[in-house]
Design goal:
Blueprint (H helix, E strand, L loop, with lengths): L2 E4 L28 E4 L5 H4 E4 L6 H10 L6 E5 L5 E5 L7 E4 L7 H17 L4 E6 L18 H11 L4 E5 L15 E5 L2 H11 L4 E5 L5 H11 L2 E11 L2 E8 L6 E9 L3 H12 L5 E8 L5 H7 L4 E5 L12 E4 L2 H12 L2
Parallel strand pairs: 1-2, 3-6, 6-7, 7-8, 8-9, 10-11, 10-13, 13-14, 14-15, 15-16
Antiparallel strand pairs: 4-5, 11-12
Helix pairs in contact: 2-9
Length: 348
Protein backbone atom coordinates (compact mmCIF):
# COMPACT_ATOMS: atom_id res chain seq x y z
CA UNK A 1 0.00 0.00 0.00
CA UNK A 2 1.34 3.42 -1.00
CA UNK A 3 0.61 6.55 1.06
CA UNK A 4 1.27 10.00 -0.41
CA UNK A 5 1.40 13.19 1.68
CA UNK A 6 0.25 16.21 -0.31
CA UNK A 7 1.48 19.71 0.46
CA UNK A 8 -1.89 21.27 -0.32
CA UNK A 9 -5.42 20.00 -0.13
CA UNK A 10 -8.08 19.65 -2.79
CA UNK A 11 -9.99 22.86 -3.31
CA UNK A 12 -12.75 22.87 -0.73
CA UNK A 13 -15.58 25.39 -0.77
CA UNK A 14 -18.61 25.93 1.45
CA UNK A 15 -22.00 24.98 0.02
CA UNK A 16 -22.83 28.61 -0.70
CA UNK A 17 -20.11 28.59 -3.38
CA UNK A 18 -21.37 25.55 -5.27
CA UNK A 19 -22.55 27.69 -8.18
CA UNK A 20 -19.15 29.29 -8.78
CA UNK A 21 -17.90 27.82 -12.05
CA UNK A 22 -14.60 27.57 -13.94
CA UNK A 23 -12.56 26.56 -10.89
CA UNK A 24 -10.53 23.38 -11.13
CA UNK A 25 -11.39 20.70 -8.56
CA UNK A 26 -9.24 17.91 -10.00
CA UNK A 27 -7.02 15.89 -7.70
CA UNK A 28 -3.28 16.51 -7.59
CA UNK A 29 -1.01 13.90 -9.14
CA UNK A 30 -1.08 11.02 -6.66
CA UNK A 31 1.51 8.82 -8.44
CA UNK A 32 -0.51 5.68 -7.75
CA UNK A 33 -1.11 6.25 -4.05
CA UNK A 34 -3.84 4.25 -2.31
CA UNK A 35 -4.27 6.74 0.55
CA UNK A 36 -3.92 10.51 0.49
CA UNK A 37 -2.58 12.22 3.60
CA UNK A 38 -3.33 15.94 3.39
CA UNK A 39 -1.12 18.49 5.10
CA UNK A 40 -1.98 22.08 5.91
CA UNK A 41 -5.29 23.92 5.67
CA UNK A 42 -8.41 22.17 4.40
CA UNK A 43 -10.56 25.17 3.49
CA UNK A 44 -10.21 28.74 2.35
CA UNK A 45 -11.26 30.06 5.77
CA UNK A 46 -8.29 28.21 7.31
CA UNK A 47 -5.86 29.91 4.94
CA UNK A 48 -7.40 33.37 4.56
CA UNK A 49 -9.02 36.10 6.62
CA UNK A 50 -11.13 39.12 5.76
CA UNK A 51 -10.53 42.47 7.41
CA UNK A 52 -13.95 44.13 7.16
CA UNK A 53 -14.80 47.68 6.23
CA UNK A 54 -15.79 50.07 8.99
CA UNK A 55 -19.10 50.40 7.12
CA UNK A 56 -19.74 47.09 5.29
CA UNK A 57 -21.62 47.18 1.98
CA UNK A 58 -23.84 44.60 0.29
CA UNK A 59 -20.89 43.70 -1.95
CA UNK A 60 -18.79 42.88 1.09
CA UNK A 61 -21.51 40.66 2.57
CA UNK A 62 -21.81 38.81 -0.75
CA UNK A 63 -18.04 38.29 -0.94
CA UNK A 64 -18.06 36.83 2.58
CA UNK A 65 -20.94 34.53 1.63
CA UNK A 66 -19.30 33.37 -1.60
CA UNK A 67 -15.94 32.62 0.04
CA UNK A 68 -17.21 31.31 3.36
CA UNK A 69 -14.70 33.49 5.23
CA UNK A 70 -15.80 35.06 8.50
CA UNK A 71 -14.31 38.55 8.97
CA UNK A 72 -11.90 39.08 11.86
CA UNK A 73 -12.71 41.50 14.64
CA UNK A 74 -11.42 44.93 13.63
CA UNK A 75 -11.76 48.31 15.29
CA UNK A 76 -11.73 51.52 13.24
CA UNK A 77 -12.34 54.88 14.87
CA UNK A 78 -11.49 58.55 14.50
CA UNK A 79 -9.63 60.73 16.96
CA UNK A 80 -10.95 64.24 17.49
CA UNK A 81 -8.24 65.73 15.27
CA UNK A 82 -9.39 63.56 12.35
CA UNK A 83 -6.69 60.87 12.55
CA UNK A 84 -7.82 57.29 11.88
CA UNK A 85 -7.15 54.48 14.36
CA UNK A 86 -7.14 50.78 13.36
CA UNK A 87 -6.78 47.62 15.45
CA UNK A 88 -7.06 44.08 14.02
CA UNK A 89 -7.64 41.97 17.09
CA UNK A 90 -8.37 38.65 15.37
CA UNK A 91 -5.60 36.08 14.72
CA UNK A 92 -4.31 36.48 11.14
CA UNK A 93 -0.76 35.15 11.55
CA UNK A 94 0.33 33.14 8.51
CA UNK A 95 -2.89 33.84 6.60
CA UNK A 96 -3.71 35.64 3.38
CA UNK A 97 -5.52 38.77 4.49
CA UNK A 98 -8.09 40.45 2.26
CA UNK A 99 -8.89 44.05 3.11
CA UNK A 100 -12.45 44.85 2.13
CA UNK A 101 -13.20 48.14 0.34
CA UNK A 102 -13.90 51.00 2.72
CA UNK A 103 -17.10 52.89 1.99
CA UNK A 104 -18.14 56.49 2.51
CA UNK A 105 -18.06 59.78 0.66
CA UNK A 106 -14.54 60.83 1.68
CA UNK A 107 -12.13 59.06 -0.67
CA UNK A 108 -9.06 60.14 1.31
CA UNK A 109 -10.44 58.69 4.56
CA UNK A 110 -11.20 55.44 2.73
CA UNK A 111 -7.66 55.17 1.40
CA UNK A 112 -6.06 55.98 4.76
CA UNK A 113 -8.15 53.25 6.38
CA UNK A 114 -6.87 50.78 3.77
CA UNK A 115 -3.23 51.81 4.27
CA UNK A 116 -3.48 51.47 8.05
CA UNK A 117 -5.17 48.07 7.85
CA UNK A 118 -2.46 46.80 5.50
CA UNK A 119 0.29 47.98 7.84
CA UNK A 120 -1.47 46.47 10.85
CA UNK A 121 -1.96 43.15 9.05
CA UNK A 122 1.70 42.90 8.09
CA UNK A 123 2.80 43.68 11.64
CA UNK A 124 0.39 41.00 12.89
CA UNK A 125 2.16 38.35 10.79
CA UNK A 126 -0.07 38.08 7.71
CA UNK A 127 1.31 35.89 4.93
CA UNK A 128 0.00 38.16 2.17
CA UNK A 129 -2.12 41.31 2.21
CA UNK A 130 -4.51 41.85 -0.68
CA UNK A 131 -6.54 45.05 -1.00
CA UNK A 132 -9.96 44.50 -2.58
CA UNK A 133 -10.58 47.77 -4.42
CA UNK A 134 -13.38 47.27 -6.98
CA UNK A 135 -13.31 50.99 -7.76
CA UNK A 136 -9.65 52.11 -7.78
CA UNK A 137 -9.49 55.58 -6.25
CA UNK A 138 -7.71 58.33 -8.22
CA UNK A 139 -7.77 56.17 -11.37
CA UNK A 140 -8.73 59.19 -13.51
CA UNK A 141 -5.54 60.98 -12.50
CA UNK A 142 -3.32 58.50 -14.34
CA UNK A 143 -1.37 61.01 -16.44
CA UNK A 144 -0.28 64.63 -16.55
CA UNK A 145 -2.30 66.85 -18.85
CA UNK A 146 -0.85 70.15 -17.57
CA UNK A 147 2.47 71.18 -16.07
CA UNK A 148 2.61 70.99 -12.30
CA UNK A 149 0.17 68.07 -11.93
CA UNK A 150 0.92 64.85 -10.01
CA UNK A 151 0.25 61.37 -11.37
CA UNK A 152 -1.97 60.45 -8.46
CA UNK A 153 -2.97 56.96 -9.60
CA UNK A 154 0.72 56.03 -9.53
CA UNK A 155 1.12 57.62 -6.10
CA UNK A 156 -1.84 55.63 -4.77
CA UNK A 157 -0.25 52.40 -6.01
CA UNK A 158 3.07 53.38 -4.39
CA UNK A 159 1.37 54.09 -1.07
CA UNK A 160 -0.45 50.75 -1.17
CA UNK A 161 2.87 48.97 -1.67
CA UNK A 162 4.58 51.00 1.06
CA UNK A 163 1.80 50.19 3.54
CA UNK A 164 2.32 46.45 3.02
CA UNK A 165 -0.12 45.51 0.24
CA UNK A 166 1.12 42.52 -1.80
CA UNK A 167 -1.75 42.51 -4.29
CA UNK A 168 -4.80 44.41 -5.47
CA UNK A 169 -8.09 43.02 -6.79
CA UNK A 170 -9.83 45.70 -8.83
CA UNK A 171 -12.42 46.00 -11.58
CA UNK A 172 -12.64 48.05 -14.77
CA UNK A 173 -9.72 50.41 -14.33
CA UNK A 174 -10.10 53.75 -16.06
CA UNK A 175 -7.15 52.65 -18.18
CA UNK A 176 -5.41 49.23 -18.01
CA UNK A 177 -2.06 51.07 -18.05
CA UNK A 178 -2.54 51.69 -14.31
CA UNK A 179 -1.54 48.07 -13.77
CA UNK A 180 1.94 49.11 -14.88
CA UNK A 181 2.23 51.44 -11.88
CA UNK A 182 2.54 48.42 -9.59
CA UNK A 183 6.03 46.94 -9.04
CA UNK A 184 6.74 43.40 -10.25
CA UNK A 185 6.47 42.14 -6.67
CA UNK A 186 2.88 43.38 -6.41
CA UNK A 187 0.11 41.38 -8.07
CA UNK A 188 -2.76 43.26 -9.73
CA UNK A 189 -5.83 41.22 -10.65
CA UNK A 190 -7.86 43.37 -13.03
CA UNK A 191 -11.39 42.03 -13.44
CA UNK A 192 -13.94 43.13 -16.05
CA UNK A 193 -17.66 43.54 -15.43
CA UNK A 194 -18.45 43.18 -19.13
CA UNK A 195 -19.61 39.59 -18.65
CA UNK A 196 -22.33 40.44 -16.11
CA UNK A 197 -23.29 43.52 -18.14
CA UNK A 198 -23.66 41.43 -21.28
CA UNK A 199 -25.81 38.86 -19.47
CA UNK A 200 -28.07 41.60 -18.10
CA UNK A 201 -28.50 43.24 -21.50
CA UNK A 202 -29.15 39.96 -23.28
CA UNK A 203 -31.79 39.15 -20.67
CA UNK A 204 -33.72 42.28 -21.68
CA UNK A 205 -33.81 41.18 -25.35
CA UNK A 206 -33.48 44.72 -26.73
CA UNK A 207 -33.90 44.84 -30.55
CA UNK A 208 -32.04 47.13 -32.99
CA UNK A 209 -29.23 47.69 -30.53
CA UNK A 210 -26.35 50.14 -30.86
CA UNK A 211 -23.56 50.46 -28.27
CA UNK A 212 -22.48 54.09 -27.93
CA UNK A 213 -19.32 55.51 -26.40
CA UNK A 214 -19.90 58.88 -24.70
CA UNK A 215 -16.41 60.00 -25.83
CA UNK A 216 -13.57 58.98 -28.13
CA UNK A 217 -11.54 57.55 -25.24
CA UNK A 218 -14.07 54.79 -24.56
CA UNK A 219 -14.13 53.27 -28.03
CA UNK A 220 -12.05 50.20 -27.15
CA UNK A 221 -14.48 49.38 -24.38
CA UNK A 222 -17.45 49.83 -26.74
CA UNK A 223 -15.78 47.75 -29.47
CA UNK A 224 -15.53 44.77 -27.12
CA UNK A 225 -19.15 44.93 -25.91
CA UNK A 226 -20.51 45.47 -29.44
CA UNK A 227 -18.58 42.40 -30.57
CA UNK A 228 -19.94 40.34 -27.66
CA UNK A 229 -23.52 41.40 -28.46
CA UNK A 230 -23.00 41.30 -32.25
CA UNK A 231 -24.44 44.77 -32.80
CA UNK A 232 -23.52 48.17 -34.23
CA UNK A 233 -21.59 50.90 -32.44
CA UNK A 234 -21.34 54.69 -32.42
CA UNK A 235 -19.45 57.43 -30.59
CA UNK A 236 -20.32 60.88 -29.23
CA UNK A 237 -17.75 63.58 -29.92
CA UNK A 238 -17.55 65.94 -26.96
CA UNK A 239 -15.62 69.01 -25.92
CA UNK A 240 -14.45 69.29 -22.30
CA UNK A 241 -14.18 72.84 -20.97
CA UNK A 242 -12.98 71.89 -17.48
CA UNK A 243 -13.05 69.05 -14.92
CA UNK A 244 -16.60 67.64 -14.68
CA UNK A 245 -17.75 69.92 -17.51
CA UNK A 246 -18.27 68.52 -21.02
CA UNK A 247 -20.47 69.34 -24.02
CA UNK A 248 -21.69 66.67 -26.48
CA UNK A 249 -21.36 68.06 -30.00
CA UNK A 250 -22.00 65.37 -32.63
CA UNK A 251 -22.44 61.61 -33.15
CA UNK A 252 -20.38 59.39 -35.41
CA UNK A 253 -22.56 56.43 -36.44
CA UNK A 254 -26.21 55.73 -37.16
CA UNK A 255 -28.56 55.85 -34.17
CA UNK A 256 -31.83 56.93 -35.80
CA UNK A 257 -34.61 54.48 -34.93
CA UNK A 258 -32.21 52.42 -32.81
CA UNK A 259 -32.18 51.45 -29.13
CA UNK A 260 -28.93 52.76 -27.68
CA UNK A 261 -26.72 51.74 -24.77
CA UNK A 262 -24.29 54.40 -23.60
CA UNK A 263 -21.32 52.45 -22.20
CA UNK A 264 -18.75 54.06 -19.89
CA UNK A 265 -16.49 53.11 -16.99
CA UNK A 266 -17.44 55.80 -14.45
CA UNK A 267 -20.47 58.01 -13.86
CA UNK A 268 -19.47 60.82 -11.52
CA UNK A 269 -21.56 63.99 -11.86
CA UNK A 270 -23.43 62.48 -14.89
CA UNK A 271 -22.96 65.59 -17.02
CA UNK A 272 -21.36 63.70 -19.91
CA UNK A 273 -23.94 60.89 -19.89
CA UNK A 274 -26.95 63.23 -19.61
CA UNK A 275 -25.69 65.43 -22.47
CA UNK A 276 -24.95 62.38 -24.65
CA UNK A 277 -28.44 60.95 -24.01
CA UNK A 278 -30.08 64.21 -25.01
CA UNK A 279 -28.03 64.33 -28.21
CA UNK A 280 -28.92 60.72 -29.05
CA UNK A 281 -32.62 61.47 -28.60
CA UNK A 282 -32.23 64.56 -30.80
CA UNK A 283 -30.68 62.36 -33.50
CA UNK A 284 -33.68 60.02 -33.49
CA UNK A 285 -32.70 57.29 -31.03
CA UNK A 286 -35.51 55.26 -29.45
CA UNK A 287 -34.94 53.90 -25.92
CA UNK A 288 -31.65 54.91 -24.29
CA UNK A 289 -29.93 52.82 -21.63
CA UNK A 290 -26.72 53.53 -19.74
CA UNK A 291 -24.16 50.95 -18.59
CA UNK A 292 -21.22 51.92 -16.39
CA UNK A 293 -18.88 49.96 -14.16
CA UNK A 294 -18.73 52.44 -11.28
CA UNK A 295 -21.68 54.61 -10.28
CA UNK A 296 -20.30 57.41 -8.11
CA UNK A 297 -23.29 59.75 -8.62
CA UNK A 298 -21.86 62.85 -6.97
CA UNK A 299 -23.33 66.35 -6.84
CA UNK A 300 -26.64 66.63 -8.68
CA UNK A 301 -26.03 63.47 -10.71
CA UNK A 302 -29.33 61.90 -9.68
CA UNK A 303 -31.31 64.91 -10.92
CA UNK A 304 -29.44 64.97 -14.23
CA UNK A 305 -30.13 61.29 -14.81
CA UNK A 306 -33.77 61.63 -13.76
CA UNK A 307 -34.32 64.54 -16.16
CA UNK A 308 -32.41 62.97 -19.08
CA UNK A 309 -34.19 60.78 -21.68
CA UNK A 310 -32.72 57.61 -20.15
CA UNK A 311 -34.80 54.50 -19.53
CA UNK A 312 -32.38 52.67 -17.23
CA UNK A 313 -28.92 53.10 -15.69
CA UNK A 314 -27.08 49.81 -15.08
CA UNK A 315 -24.03 49.87 -12.80
CA UNK A 316 -22.13 47.28 -10.77
CA UNK A 317 -22.18 47.19 -6.97
CA UNK A 318 -18.50 48.23 -6.86
CA UNK A 319 -19.74 51.41 -5.16
CA UNK A 320 -22.44 51.40 -2.51
CA UNK A 321 -25.86 52.57 -3.69
CA UNK A 322 -26.65 56.14 -2.65
CA UNK A 323 -29.52 56.75 -0.20
CA UNK A 324 -31.12 59.13 -2.71
CA UNK A 325 -30.87 56.64 -5.57
CA UNK A 326 -33.56 56.93 -8.26
CA UNK A 327 -35.60 54.04 -9.65
CA UNK A 328 -33.77 54.18 -12.98
CA UNK A 329 -30.58 52.87 -11.36
CA UNK A 330 -30.12 49.08 -11.33
CA UNK A 331 -27.12 47.24 -9.88
CA UNK A 332 -25.53 44.02 -11.11
CA UNK A 333 -23.46 41.91 -8.72
CA UNK A 334 -19.70 41.36 -9.21
CA UNK A 335 -19.08 39.53 -5.93
CA UNK A 336 -18.76 36.10 -7.57
CA UNK A 337 -15.89 37.26 -9.80
CA UNK A 338 -14.10 38.83 -6.83
CA UNK A 339 -14.59 35.66 -4.76
CA UNK A 340 -13.13 33.57 -7.57
CA UNK A 341 -10.10 35.86 -7.70
CA UNK A 342 -9.59 35.46 -3.95
CA UNK A 343 -9.80 31.68 -4.27
CA UNK A 344 -7.27 31.69 -7.12
CA UNK A 345 -4.79 33.51 -4.86
CA UNK A 346 -5.23 31.50 -1.64
CA UNK A 347 -5.71 28.04 -3.12
CA UNK A 348 -2.36 28.01 -4.89
Amino acid sequence: MKITALGKSFYHYPKSNAYISNISMSAPNSKGADIFCFKGASSLSDKASIVPSSNPTDLEYQIEKNTGITPVKTVVKKFKNGETYVNISGNIRGKDVYIMPSSGDNVNDRLMETYLKADAAKRAGANKVIAVMPSFDYARQEKRTEKGEPITARLNMDLLKTSGVDGVITTDLHTPAIEGFAPNSMQVIHLESMGVMKDYIQGKQIPDLVIVSPDMGGMKRVDKLAKELDCDKAVVYKHRQAHNEATAQCIIGNVAGKNCILYDDIIDTAGTIAAAAKLLKKKGAKDIYVCASHGLFNGDAMKKLQDAPIKEVIVTNSVEKKPNSIDKIKQVDISVEIAKAMMSISNK
